[in-house]
Amino acid sequence: MSPKAMARPGGRSARVQEAVHAAVRELEAEAGRASLTVPAVAARAGVTPSTIYRRWGDLHELLSDVAVERLRPEEPPADHGSLHTDLEAWARQFLDEMASPSGRAYIRDALLGDPDGSNAGQCSAYAADQIEVILGRATGRGEAAPDVEAVMDHVVAPMMYRILFQPGRRTASYADQLVQAALAAPVPPD
Amino acid sequence: MSPKAMARPGGRSARVQEAVHAAVRELEAEAGRASLTVPAVAARAGVTPSTIYRRWGDLHELLSDVAVERLRPEEPPADHGSLHTDLEAWARQFLDEMASPSGRAYIRDALLGDPDGSNAGQCSAYAADQIEVILGRATGRGEAAPDVEAVMDHVVAPMMYRILFQPGRRTASYADQLVQAALAAPVPPD
After folding, report:
1. For residue range B153-185, what is the model confidence (pLDDT) as tens digits?
2. In angstroms, what separates the C-alpha of A175 from chain B's closest C-alpha?
3. For residues B146, B152, B158 and B164, what is the CA-based torsion angle, rounded to 10 degrees?
4. Residues in domain HTH tetR-type (chains A, B) (predicted)?
């Protein structure tokens, strides 16, 4: 979220943000991506175009903020009873969602209208938070667990690299192999 | 490179492509990114705007093709005498170049105007080709070497993930640590 888009929850600023985000989602669903222009979004949201330009800079930055909202996980990762099954289920779902046409479109939007990198950082933080829940649960069960960074580097990063740079090179078992390797690697001492 | 931009080397098509790419590079160097519009590029290249629209679709697709050209390595990786030193030197240089402001801009351009993913695939193929040279050399020296995919997954992908999603989380020793870990991992049997 760019600093411009920060809003006090409940204030006028937050209401404008919610109306504009909703307008983007509605217009896109009704008339497709090509229908998304700043004047059309402003008209649907009941604000002036200059409100949008002032707050988001341009359409790309607005779409980036909307994409990040859509990439926010809706619930904590499921508890399947062991680190291996939890992480494998999470990685499979992450790969499925992010590699889908809408997932890829949101990632591109998030990266694109993001001059300061804060939206991309937010996407990464969502994944790290989910992994932290899984690893914390494993530690609570007495299981040895890698650290969050190791999982980001060796499970999340390779999946995201394939999604962005090697479309078509994604096999069903790819997430499983990465999880297997990350859990087989020696856990570094604290 | 999108199929539209394919050209027979030496033909009229190749000359148009070279003139248009050169016009983008010159205009950007002289007047900055905001100066890049299809009519301005066409005027500088001595072609009509419709030639550009017909061949590239839009400005984003043209910029993506130009970015991929700029990301093409100019020479094979240096030979420092061992797999470890070769891969470490390559990874450090890759991280330096790709994380620089111009490197990041080219990666974004390459990803952005790339509806079919072929330009992103080309970027990835450039890295894989360089790594293949390094690994082939190591094998020639009798050194045990991981396969190209393992280096892509566990050295290239984590660097690219940090560049795109975690700006600011890139430390000088990060490339070295990834190479160290990739070379310490057991080499899977053929």
Report:
1. 999 999 999 999 987 766 668 999 999 989 987
2. 12
3. 170
4. 14-74
